[in-house]
Automatic annotation (TrEMBL):
Protein name per its UniProtKB record: DUF3567 domain-containing protein
Pfam families found in the cross-reference section: DUF3567 (PF12091)
Matches recorded under InterPro entries: DUF3567
Highest taxon of source: Bacteria
């Protein structure tokens, strides 16, 4: 797990998962991004094609450092997908 971003409004964590699958067969390594909208108390987990799309944004940010407003605008776009309430375990 790697914290990528944390502000008063959003937090973003890159989650790395262990390879899953049968020991003697092909394995699938899954990872994704969790975006928490602190204003609504909801989170969304991006994996698969959504994670790939988000990774494109991260690579663009690495090439050209964005302003906090640009980052927050992008996260706002993904936060509309958030349906799950944030729960403490």
């Amino acid at each position: 797990m790697n914290m990528l971003y944390d502000s008063d409004t959003f937090s973003v964590v890159h989650l790395f998962a262990e390879a899953v699958g049968p020991q003697d067969g092909p394995t699938l390594e899954r990872h994704g991004f969790e975006i928490v909208d602190k204003r609504t108390g909801k989170e969304v987990y991006l994996d698969g094609s959504w994670a790939e799309l988000f990774q494109v944004h991260i690579q663009a940010w690495q090439a050209k450092t964005p302003t906090q407003e640009e980052v927050e605008d992008t996260l706002e776009g993904f936060a509309v997908l958030a349906q799950n309430p944030v729960l403490m375990h």
